[in-house]
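Field reference: sequence -> structure
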Amino acid sequence: MLRGLYDWTMSLAARRSAEYWLAVIAFIESSFFFVPADVLYIPMAIARRDRAYRYALVATIASVLGGIAGWMIGYYAYETLAKPMLEHFGGLEALEKWRAWGTEWILLLLVTSGLAHLPPIKVVTILAGVLHVNIWVFIVSAIVARGARWWLLAWLLSRYGEPIRHFIEKRLGLIAAALAGVLILIFILYKLAT
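Structure field:
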């Protein structure tokens, strides 16, 4: 099923309405979709390097709005939507653990998930709503985290084009995930020490 979603998302890059689809995919990725919008963004930015930053802006805005939707699901629809989803995916225990650690933990996860999809952004946005993270703090964090990811991709793709694609698809995610893992480890050690 995921391979079919991936292939369908890739096919959108060739359409005239690709920019619209980028906004839609970036929005729903931040609240419930399984395929990252990078799958659509990267071929679009390579095909039109002069529009890489424009696409990054579209993806950032849509992703932040999708994050707000995820936050609202967690905040307003915990019992009806968020809790059953967390139970289904086995995240209810983690939610209770993170709740005890406080909102700074969820903000760290928002940054790491925004940069490296670690953990998936949709999970963190919903959890932020469940934990009642201040919406304005959430929005600023989402803009910084998601914006950094999209603008870094825009810079790389507009500067290097197709040759950098392999690096982005294979190694950039690993580097970002390692950095995110280090940030999470530092935070855990700090919390355990205090």
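Note: Residues 165-193 form the longest helix (29 residues).
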